[in-house]
Amino acid sequence: MQDLVRILELYGLQIVFAGVLLDQGGLPFPSFSLIVVAAGVATETGAPVWPIFVVAVAATLVADLIWFAGGRRFGAAMLRMICRVSLSPDSCVGTTRRIYARWGAPSLIFAKYVPGLAAVATTLAGDTRIPVARFALYDGIGAALWAGGGVALGVIFHEAIDAVLDELAVLGNSALMLLAAAVVVFVAAKWWQRWRFRMRIRMARISVSELVEMLRTKVKVAILDARTADRREHTGWIPGSVWVSDVEQLQLGPYEQVVVYCDCPNDATAALIAKQLHAKGIAHVRPLAGGLDAWVIYGGVIERAAQPS
C-alpha cells in the first residue's frame, strides 16, 4: 500500500484528472473518493492541495463541455446515449428534466452531488441552447463546490485517511484485492439497480404505425403526453394529445385505447405513467415505442402553440 501512496505522490494529479474525467463522462468511477484520498495524502506529506482542486475542476469542465456540445448538436439522441453508457436508471433523464425545468441553469450548481444526473443536466443545458457563458458560469460554480468539497474533506480528515492507508498497508496484497472487490461490488450494485428498473418498465409497446392506423379507423384513443411542460412547448406535441402533469388528477373517459408517449430513453417516463394507470384499473394503456422521435421519423404531424405576432 505504500506503493499506492507513492503513486499518488508522483502521479496524483494525472490520476485525479483521469478519474474525474471518467466519472463526469458518465462511467461508474468513484472520483469523489479519489479526490478525498489524494487531498489527504497531499496534506499528510506537506504538499499543496490547490493543484488537486484545479485539476479536478478542469477535468469536470472538459467533460461537461463535451456533454453540453453534444446536447446542443444532437439533443434527445445524446440523452439516449448517456443512458446506454451510464449504469444509472433511465428514469434519471425524467428526474433531471423536472429539476432543470424548475430551476433552469442554476440547477447545474448542485447537479454534481446527485449521482448519475450531472451528465444529463449538462446535456439538457445544451439541448435548451442556453448561452455558453451562462453555462460555464453555473457549471463552473458547481464544479468548484464539488471538487472543493472533496479537497476539504481530505484536508480535514487527513489523519484518518492516513490511518486507513496504514491499515491497508498491513494487509499488503490483500488490500488491493479488497479495493478491487469494492469496485466490483459498486458496479454490480449499479447494474442491478438499472436491471430492476428495466424490469419495472417492461411492458408491451404500441408502434407509431399501429397508432396511426387506430386514428385512421376512428378508434377512440386517448393520447397522453408524459413530458415536462417546457419540453412540450419547446418541441411541440402529437395533435390531440393531453399533457399529463399529475396522474392522480387525470380524468379519462371511456376510451378504447390509451397511448402514453415521452422523448426519454427506452420510453421510461411513458412506461412509468402507463404502469400507474394500470394500477388505477385502466387496462388498455401502452407506451408509444420510440416516443415523439419515432412519431417525427414516421412523418407524423407536430402541433405547436401559436406564436404571438
Give keywords:
single chain, 309 residues, mainly alpha, Oxidized Rhodanese, domain 1, four-stranded parallel sheet, 4 strands, 64% helix
Count of DSSP E strands? Answer: 4
- Domain unit count: 2
The residue fraction in helices comes out at: 55-70%
> How far apart, in Å, are the first and last alpha carbons?
70 Å
Low-confidence stretches: none
H/E topology pattern: HHHHHHHHHHEHEEHEH
Q: Which whole number gives the mean pLDDT?
A: 81
How many helical stretches?
Answer: 13
Based on Cα principal axes, name the global outline. elongated
Q: Helix/strand/pairing class, anyone?
A: mainly alpha
| Strand arrangement across the biggest beta sheet | 2-1-3-4
Q: If you compute it from the alpha carbons, what radius of gyration comes out, rounded to the nearest whole angstrom?
A: 23 Å
Report strand %. under 5%
Quaternary state of the chains? single chain
Question: How many strands, which pairing sense, and closed or not: the largest β-sheet?
Answer: 4 strands, parallel
Describe the protein.
With 309 residues, this protein is mainly alpha-helical. It has two domains: 199 residues, no CATH class; 91 residues, Oxidized Rhodanese, domain 1. The chain is 64% helix and 5% strand. A four-stranded parallel β-sheet has the order 2-1-3-4, with helices on both faces. Strand 1, helix 11 and strand 2 form a beta-alpha-beta unit. Helix 2 packs across helix 7 and helix 5 crosses helix 6. The longest helix is centred in the middle third of the chain and has 28 residues. The chain is elongated.
